[in-house]
Amino acid sequence: MENTENNRRQFIKKITLAGLAGMALPTLSRAFSANETDNLSESFTDDFFSLPMLGYGYEALEPHIDTLTMQIHHSRHHQAYVTNLNKAMKENNIDADLDQLIKNVSKYPIVVRNNGGGHWNHTFFWKLMKPNGGGVPTGKIAEAINNSFESFQKFQALLNEAALKRFGSGWAWLIKTPEGKLAICSTPNQDNPLMDIAEVKGTPLLGIDVWEHAYYLHYQNKRADYLNAWWNVVNWDDVASRL
Ligand code: MN3
């Protein structure tokens, strides 16, 4: 993630210096997300971070996650975290990549914790889902889950419980601990287990957004129904790749 962001910034700086002379716009536009190509002029900034493209359409996770929720969640909520994080970086003269920000979050103003966490968590979350996902994992990730939680069903019940018990807004996580074991935990707001302030630390393998903005339009207050539906879009290949 960090290299991509840095490379992108360097790339944009070079383009800005070179002006538009000699640059083929169609080639250039492919380097940016769909959202940004709508406003190409806004791409020529020295922003640190940008909204990542989804690997699927807003409608692709229907009927489990509805189109409007996906659209608002990505283009407004995630965009707001990115915008506010970029603003905070400039206002506080911070020069660090996203992974450094998260790892040392206690050293920065709270606005960085909230919006840096929001950007990291959502970038992670979009990759964790896919159309026609779900099912039961296989291979090494299945073995690791069975070894740690006895069975897939028990693992799922524990993660659902962590997600349901998180009061207010936050996330439920499957993590790999520094000792190399799997564990389940939850964090408030946009915190995550990579942060130096996290109660339980580890590398996230899977995370479920339990903010109401992730489900309220379709499921209203029924967080349990959202959780049950969410398991139908989980991308086990992505989870396994992080093990
Ligand atoms: Mn969210």
Using DSSP, what is the number of strands?
3
Outline:
globular
Rg from alpha-carbon coordinates: 19 Å
Approximate strand percentage: 5-15%
The separation of the N and C termini measures 17 Å
Low-pLDDT residue spans: 10-43
Average pLDDT works out at: 87
CATH topology of the domain at 139-242: minor pseudopilin epsh fold
Strand arrangement across the biggest beta sheet: 2-1-3
CATH fourth-tier homologous superfamily of the domain at 139-242: Iron/manganese superoxide dismutase, C-terminal domain
The distinct ligands, each listed once, are: manganese (III) ion
Q: How many helix segments? A: 12
Summarize the main sheet: 3 strands, antiparallel
The CATH architecture assignment of the domain at 139-242 turns out to be 3-Layer(bab) Sandwich
- Helix fraction, binned, reads 40-55%
Order of helices and strands: HHHHHHHHHEEEHHH
Q: What is the CATH C-level name of the domain at 139-242?
A: Alpha Beta
Report on this structure.
The protein is mainly α. The protein has a domain at 139-242: minor pseudopilin epsh fold. It is built from 12 helices and 3 strands; from the N terminus they run αααααααααβββααα. The protein has a 3-stranded antiparallel beta sheet, sandwiched between helices. A hairpin with a 5-residue loop joins β1 (170-176) and β2 (182-188). α5 (67-91) packs antiparallel against α7 (110-127). The chain starts with a helix and ends with a helix. The relative contact order is 0.12. Bound molecules: manganese (III) ion. The site of manganese (III) ion (MN3) has 7 residues, from α5.
